[in-house]
Specification:
10% strand; 392 residues; alpha+beta; 5 strands; Heat Shock Protein 90; 12 helices; single chain; 63% helix
């Protein structure tokens, strides 16, 4: 790998450490020995070469450490470079490799102690100091390697968490897009189908249907624009979320499409102003429907009305919507409409297509809100029923 500027600084620092160790200890070694000046110069030259060899420690750390360990048995001037090489092995190689190199470096210690060296001999202190420095170099390198692994693990976890967060955000946007656009486009499809089968009808009815189509298409484009805007500008403020008080407007839209919707609400302390204030504050007011519960209930009713238009017996399908509950007992939402399981006949007008993910998404929404949802056929009616928590 190409060496970075940080790597070059680290290598130069290690070279300077080895050279400084070389210079600081040179006088004491020479003063206490009886070797000739030529031999001392030769050992110092070898020590200088060993210091320069540290610039290749990244490529061949084990080979360099073994070579310097063996050479250090014959020359004190190899000690500084040897310590740097041992540190490099411990910091960059697996523990098993480090263990073998450590065994090679510390193997003479038991034999040296067993020989009973005199305590007052200066060479005894030098030898013990050397083994202590070897152990410190290996320990420091192992600590650095463990710290690097910990940081890498934390970075990997953070990356996985960010990936999961992005995936959850995409799923939330997809769920929101399905909930909003399916409702708008189903209204548009119902009125377009009425115009197709009755092109010569009452001009007032045709004009009203065309107006609903235009308004639904405009609102669908507006909703889509807002959702895409959130994707393009993630730091922008979130679009206003629906609350339980918006059910009346949602029901009126379906009634405008011809559906006969009956809405029953038995919720204490429920009001539009209070819920709007609750959402702005980001929490549940005392006696008010929690924001998450109200929003989830709205989406459940929205999907139920959309399915009734898609799969019901006709545009004027009767739909019963009930919302009941209170603090401490939860909120129960139920949507019922007559119909039959979809069947396709040759020559029949195709029904409004569906992705099949609406009920799956609602089930996930209910679970995320801490509740549950069930759906199915009951005496010829399709029933969508959910329970959502409402703390007391």
């Amino acid at each position: 790998m190409r060496r970075t500027g940080k790597d070059w600084l680290a290598d130069i620092g290690m070279f300077l450490f080895a050279a400084l160790f070389f210079l600081v200890t040179a006088d004491s070694v020479v003063a206490g020995s009886d070797i000739s000046g030529t031999a001392v110069l030769a050992e110092q030259a070898a020590g200088g070469v060993a210091c320069a060899a540290l610039f290749v420690r990244r490529r061949w750390p084990v080979a360099l450490a073994v070579l310097l360990l063996v050479s250090g048995k014959f020359s004190h001037f190899m000690t500084g470079p040897c310590l740097v090489a041992l540190f490099t092995v411990a910091a960059t190689r697996p523990p098993r490799v480090t263990g073998w190199v450590a065994a090679l470096g510390l193997a003479p210690l038991p034999f040296y102690l067993a020989s009973g060296p005199p305590a007052d001999d200066p060479r005894t202190g030098s030898a013990l100091t050397f083994f202590a420095l070897v152990a410190c170099a290996l320990g420091w390198g192992s600590f650095v390697r463990s710290r690097r692994q910990l940081i890498a693990s934390l970075e990997e976890r953070a990356e996985h968490a960010a990936t999961d967060a992005r995936r959850e955000a995409r799923e939330d946007v997809a769920r929101e897009m399905h909930d909003v656009l399916a409702h708008r486009l189903s209204l548009l499809s119902v009125h377009a189908g009425a115009l197709e089968f009755n092109p010569g009808g009452n001009p007032e009815q045709v004009s009203r249907a065309a107006g609903v189509i235009r308004e639904s298409a405009h609102e669908a484009l507006q909703d889509l624009r807002e959702i895409i805007g959130v994707l393009r500008a993630p730091e922008a403020h979130e679009r206003p979320q629906p609350v339980l008080a918006d059910l009346e407007q949602l029901v009126e839209e379906s009634r405008g499409a011809g559906a006969r919707v009956t809405l029953v609400r038995e919720v204490p302390g429920e009001g539009e102003a209070g819920e709007r204030e609750e959402v702005q504050q980001g929490g549940a007011q005392q006696g008010g429907v929690p924001a998450v519960t109200g929003r989830t209930a709205y989406r459940i009713v929205q999907e139920g009305l959309t399915n009734a238009r898609k799969h019901g017996p006709g545009p004027e399908v009767p739909v019963s919507v009930s919302v009941r509950g209170g603090p401490g007992q939860g909120l129960t939402v139920e949507v019922r409409n007559p119909g039959k399981e979809p069947q396709h006949h040759e020559g029949a007008h195709p029904a409004v297509p569906g992705s099949g993910q609406g009920l799956v998404g609602l089930t996930e929404r209910a679970h995320l809100a801490g509740g549950h949802l069930e759906h199915g056929w009951d005496d010829g009616d399709f029933r969508l029923r959910a329970w959502l928590p409402w703390p007391g």
